[in-house]
Specification:
The protein is built from 10 helices and 18 strands. By secondary structure, it is an alpha+beta fold. It folds into 3 domains: 118 residues, no CATH class; 133 residues, Jelly Rolls (Sandwich); 70 residues, 3-Layer(bab) Sandwich (Phage tail protein beta-alpha-beta fold), CATH 3.55.50.30. Strands 1, 2, 3, 4, 5, 6, 7, 8, 9, 10, 11, 12 and 13 form a 13-stranded mixed β-sheet that branches. Strands 15-18-17 form a 3-stranded mixed β-sheet, with helices on one face. The protein has a two-stranded antiparallel ribbon with strand order 14-16. Helix 2 crosses helix 3. The longest helix is centred in the N-terminal third of the chain and has 18 residues. The radius of gyration is 23 Å and the shape is elongated. This is Ferric-dicitrate binding protein FerR (Iron transport regulator). Keywords: Membrane, Transmembrane, Transmembrane helix.
């Protein structure tokens, strides 16, 4: 079905019973064109009924005022509310403003792209873990996912019925439900991670030069997202590091439990380079860390559990003397 030919605004008017006679005829003509059109309308109607039941006492009828408030949010880049699904907001686009206010969601992220990319993201569910926080979710097929700080996971409405594809920006740990019909695929932009049932960690932050995949159990294959060429297979306790630019890949032995320890609310370092340690700590605490006078050959071995940022800094100071300054989310560290 061509997404660009789906008359979403017309269908929204149809579902809200605001169609004129000629518009109803257009809807009926569209339904008769393809059997999938009626299936789509049924899905939209189910979503619409779910929203409409609780909406009556909260809808603001002044549409101009509603859109004005949304535009204000866009201009001021209001912080997004985590753990939301935007599929409802996009599917019923003709009344998106009212639904947005009913559910209390920020729509700023919907209007930052071109029209074509907006249409391509129809029926997409998006889950985000805010900076300094972690999020756990269960996908429709029973797959468990943990999202690390500053990460984003998305999947479309066909998940578990036509495919099991998710898109990841950031870091996530997956405990995949076995399914012999549909492989589970994690898309990171340059690398696809393909499995049937296993547990593994993927780190694909946009500010990192490489994508890292560590396998806890099972077996996974890494493929080029562009041409699906095989990059490597992984066995348990192996980690693949793939360059985003060249797609060069190296496989190393690792302790996958340590690599994925963050999803158990532990952050373990086992001889990690100093710069990588501080980058992970910055994400863990949701702060921006600036280093100076640092010895890049230095490595650390320690574990973070429930320690506050100040407690962590004092602990580091005992290991290797530092001076530090806290200014909101800005942390400046100078090695002595």
């Amino acid at each position: 079905m061509n997404e660009q030919q789906i008359p979403y605004e017309l269908l929204a008017k149809y579902l809200s019973r605001q169609c004129t006679l000629s518009e109803r005829e257009k809807v009926n003509h569209w339904l008769n064109e393809d059997s999938e059109h009626r299936l789509l309308l049924n899905k939209l109607q189910q979503q619409w009924e779910g929203v409409r039941v609780n909406a009556s006492s909260y809808v603001i009828p002044d549409k101009v005022e509603v859109w004005g408030k949304i535009q204000d949010r866009i201009r001021h880049k209001v912080k997004q509310v985590p753990l939301y699904s935007r599929s409802l907001l996009i599917r019923i686009s003709g009344i998106a403003a009212a639904i947005a206010l009913i559910l209390g969601f920020s729509l700023s992220f919907l209007f930052n792209s071109q029209k074509d990319s907006w249409q391509a993201s129809q029926f997409e569910n998006v889950i985000m873990a805010p900076s300094g926080q972690k999020t756990q979710l269960v996908l429709p097929d029973g797959t468990l996912v943990w999202l690390n700080s500053g990460s984003r996971l998305s999947y479309n409405y066909q998940y578990s019925t036509h495919d099991r594809i998710v898109n990841l920006e950031g870091e996530a740990f997956f405990d995949v439900k076995k399914d012999t019909q549909y492989p589970f695929i994690v898309k990171t932009g340059t690398v696809d991670v393909k499995v049937h049932g296993t547990a593994f960690n993927v780190s694909a932050y946009t500010d990192e030069e490489a994508i890292k995949v560590a396998l806890l159990r099972g077996k996974v294959s890494l493929l080029s997202a562009e041409n699906q060429n095989l990059l490597t297979y992984l066995s348990p306790d192996q980690e693949a590091i793939v360059s985003k630019k060249s797609l060069s890949c190296r496989v190393e032995s690792c302790d996958a439990e340590i690599e994925a320890s963050w999803h158990h609310n532990l952050l373990k370092f086992d001889g990690d380079p100093v710069e990588e340690v501080w980058k992970k700590l910055g994400r863990w605490y949701g702060v921006d860390i600036t280093l100076s006078n640092v010895d890049v050959s230095k490595s650390y071995w320690f574990t973070i559990k429930t320690e506050s940022l100040t407690e962590l800094l004092e602990m580091i100071n005992k290991i290797s003397p530092i001076e530090y300054k806290l200014d909101g989310k800005e942390v400046t560290i100078r090695y002595k």
